[in-house]
Design goal:
- This protein has 258 residues and is α+β, with helices and mostly antiparallel strands.
- It contains 4 helices and 15 strands.
- Strand 9 and strand 10 form a beta hairpin.
């Protein structure tokens, strides 16, 4: 399976250490050498870099690492291919426009048969590649489109739609994903394949401090990582958890000054 990483921070912060460790998983200490990508989301747009090769061996990845680009909202992915050829179009994270801003998505898992499931029809947003992950993203964007066609949706409306999507997706197989609309970061933890070959929770881990929240498939650098429970969806804004499927958070709370 692939590996995911994301950060939501109060201020632009260095992500050099965890990204360096993630890159080592992409071909040196791990088998995820079939592609890598990172999206820096900023002001409704995103700077996205992807390559269909091993992150550990990439000169472009080293170039970005050496310059220590700081960011407050990032999604990254290293790929271990299970579906689709090794090509740029099958390399995550994926991006699409919706509501006049760039949305970004990365998935770890296997959801076979998604293209034939009526719950995941992708009428208006179509895949470019052949992966089930990209089809899932297109289906999510189609689900969210009615909300964004009316303007920027309320937190509760966005969150409820992502939770419902996650519930449906995990009926097909392991369905860990990271998604951002450029303002909020959503994370869904399910199950992933362990080194022994078993598929079990946790699908994601999380680490928080006063300035940022970090999410990864497996703990990267630093201490304090904890498993995100199976089936849990959380939403983050500027480093703070503002919604969780385990409890109710007041709509609009994320708009309060830090």
């Amino acid at each position: 399976m692939c590996e995911l990483f994301a950060v939501s921070a109060r201020y632009p912060t260095s992500i050099q250490a965890p990204l360096g460790e993630l890159a080592r998983h992409g071909g040196e200490t791990g088998p995820h050498r079939d592609g890598w990508g990172i999206a820096y989301l900023d002001g409704g747009d995103a700077f996205v870099v992807r390559e269909a090769g091993a992150a550990h061996e990439s000169e472009l990845r080293r170039f970005l690492h050496e310059r220590d680009r700081r960011a407050d909202l990032v999604i990254a992915h290293v790929r271990h291919a299970t579906q689709g050829e090794l090509s740029l179009r099958n390399t995550q994270p994926f991006q699409r426009e919706l509501g006049g801003r760039v949305h970004v998505f990365a998935h770890n898992g296997m959801v076979p048969g998604i293209e034939r499931d009526r719950r995941f029809r992708a009428r208006w947003t179509r895949p470019i590649g052949e992966t089930d992950s990209e089809h899932a993203f297109c289906a999510l964007i189609d689900r969210l489109r009615p909300l964004w066609d009316r303007g920027v949706p309320e937190l509760r409306d966005r969150f409820d739609e992502v939770v419902a999507f996650a519930h449906d997706l995990r009926t097909l197989g392991p369905a860990n994903f990271l998604y951002s609309d450029g303002e909020l970061l959503f994370a869904h933890s399910h199950r992933r394949r362990t080194p022994t070959g078993a598929i079990e929770p946790p699908g994601l881990h999380v680490r928080s401090d006063d300035e940022a929240t970090w999410i990864a498939s497996v703990p990267l650098t630093g201490s304090g990582w904890r498993p995100l429970p199976e089936g849990r969806v959380i939403a983050l804004h500027r480093g703070r958890e503002v919604a969780s499927s385990a409890r109710t958070v007041s709509p609009g709370a994320w708009l309060s000054p830090a």
